Amino acid sequence: MNHASYKDSKFGAFRRPVVGLCAIVLTAALAACGGGGGGSITPNGSAAQGAAAAPGQPGAAAPLTGAASAGPSASPSASPTPNTSVPAHIQTWAFDEYWAEGANAPSSAVAQYLTYAEGGAGNGKAQSDCSGSPKTCSSVFYVDPNFKYASPTCPMAESAAFIAAAGSDESWFVHEAGYTDFAHRVQGSYAQSCQGATVTIPVYLANDASPNVAAYYQNYLQSNGDKWDYYFMDDTSTLVLSQTYGPGGGFCQDSLPNHWCSSTQEYPNDSAVAQAHLTFASSLSHTNGQPMQFFFNGVSFSGQTPLNLQLLSMGSGHFMGAVCENCIVNAGTPRPNMFAPVLNAMAQIDAIPGAAFIELNTGSSPTASTAQLAARYLTTAMAWLGYSEGHTIVFPNLEDNTNNLAVWPEDLLYPTQPLQSMTSGATDLQVAPGVYRREFASCYNNQSPIGPCAAIVNSTSSPVPIAAAWLQQTYHHILQMSGGDILSGGTTVLNTAYFTPGVGSLGAGAATILVK
Question: Full-prediction pTM beyond 0.85?
Answer without folding.
Answer: yes
